[in-house]
Amino acid sequence: MSTSTVRRSPKTLPPRWRKLALVVHVVSSLGWLGITMVNAVLTFTSVFTDDPRRQQAAILMMDQVGGYLLLPISLTALVSGIVLSTGTKWGLVRYRWVAIKLVLTLIAAGLTLFSLLPGIGELAAAAESTMDDAFVERGRRVDGFYPIIVSTMMYMTMTVLSVYKPGGKTPYGRRVTAIRVRESQPA
């Protein structure tokens, strides 16, 4: 049976659009993780180098990479995940694993927007205003590891949830299923 003759629920995405949404979601999610790993290397370099110029270069690169890419990539992952979940059988809050991923993604995007990006911006401004032979505040830079650890753990958790799909249906998902079963039974 061809895909054009398969009956779908009116709320589901056609297979081509579902695959496109899945590709966009996976690529943007991997991009988000990749940017985090690049920032991890740059943070490590800025904290443990004995060369002030290398430290400043690492900090300024964090601002370049994170400042321009983090917000669009995180929002693309969020929006594509919402499109994908609402356009498939999984739904946005029908299954626990999807709802948990949604909450984690909202938290990660919020932390990126309201905490990480302003912090990187402040650090970059400090690096730009510091002379070439002086270090940027050393004690404060160690804090840069916390966002990397937290976000990496969140991304890994979301990946595990996507692969194993634990937890079953939410109460809402059980109600929707029960209603559909009742409606499909002959009177």
Written account of the structure:
The protein has 187 residues and is an all-alpha fold. It has one domain. 75% of the residues lie in helices and 0% in strands. The chain is built from 6 helices and no strands. It has helices spanning 15-48, 52-86, 96-129, 138-141, 145-164, 171-184. Helix 1 packs antiparallel against helix 5 and helix 2 runs antiparallel to helix 3 (96-129). The radius of gyration is 22 Å and the shape is elongated. The two termini are 30 Å apart. Mean pLDDT is 89; it is low at 1-8.
Tertiary shape: elongated
Whole-number radius of gyration? 22 Å
- Give the amount of beta strand, in percent: under 5%
Q: What low-confidence regions span 5 or more consecutive residues with pLDDT below 50?
A: 1-8
Compute the number of structural domains. 1
How many E-type strands? 0
Average pLDDT metric: 89
Properties at a glance:
transmembrane, disordered N terminus, 0% strand, membrane, 6 helices, transmembrane helix, mainly alpha, DUF2269 domain-containing protein, 187 residues, single chain
Which secondary structure elements does this structure contain, and how are they paired or packed?
Layout: H1 15-48, H2 52-86, H3 96-129, H4 138-141, H5 145-164, H6 171-184
Summarize the structure.
The chain has 187 residues and is an all-alpha fold.
